[in-house]
Design a protein that fits this description.
The chain has 192 residues and is an all-alpha fold. It has a single domain (9-187), classed as Ferritin. 78% of the residues lie in helices and 0% in strands. The chain has helices at 9-30, 38-61, 67-94, 101-123, 131-153, 162-190. It is elongated.
């Protein structure tokens, strides 16, 4: 059995804020009043997920001196703010598209499986004294969950205006995910 690592005060402060952000995201994604519109439900459920990415990135920017991590965090803040604005602008129009009880059941079953796996992984990422590595590990799981959530909603009859936003969101998340995995590999190799 390996001895747990001793965390620095800076790492502890970073992780405490991360936990607050994560708790708020999980609450926001779990306690949505479900309607007969998958489009409306998804928008209400995904906005706390997007806001968490912004807050997680703001958190790492308080501590990191790694320029590629800073650039990534700034890019995530910018793109996720744009996604939140696009989703909020659609919410009132997309609620018009209604779904059957069966579709709603299928959507919610998959949604719960995806979010449970994501929450579990985000609550217990491997932790080190490298804030950069911690951030990347957390954000990789976050983005993987976001991609799966978007893929899930695209299986159903949804608001047509939402589809291009979802496709753009998936493309951005995939690009950022590839960058994060590359960055994580380089940081783990040098243990920075």
């Amino acid at each position: 059995m390996t001895k747990p690592i001793e965390l620095s005060n800076v790492t502890k402060a970073y992780l405490e804020e991360y936990q607050r952000i994560l708790d708020k995201m999980m609450q926001g994604m779990s306690y949505v009043t479900i309607t007969c519109s998958i489009s409306e439900n998804f928008i209400k459920q995904i906005i706390p997920h997007q806001v968490a990415a912004i807050k997680m990135s703001e958190n790492v920017l308080r501590y990191t001196t790694n320029i590629p991590v800073q650039n990534l965090a700034l890019e995530i803040i910018k793109t996720h703010k744009e996604m939140v604005e696009s989703l909020e602008a659609l919410e009132n129009r997309c609620c018009i598209v209604q779904n059957s009880e069966y579709e709603l059941y299928e959507y919610m079953c998959a949604y719960q499986q995806i979010t449970e796996a994501m929450f579990k992984a985000m609550c217990a990422p491997p932790v080190s004294n490298s804030i950069n590595i911690n951030y990347l590990r957390e954000m990789i799981v976050h983005h993987q969950g976001g991609i799966r959530l978007a893929q899930n909603v695209l299986r159903f009859c949804i608001c047509q205006e939402l589809i291009p936003i979802l496709k753009c969101m998936m493309q951005i998340l995939c690009e950022q995910l590839a960058l994060m995995e590359k960055l994580l590999d380089s940081l783990q190799d040098c243990d920075c």
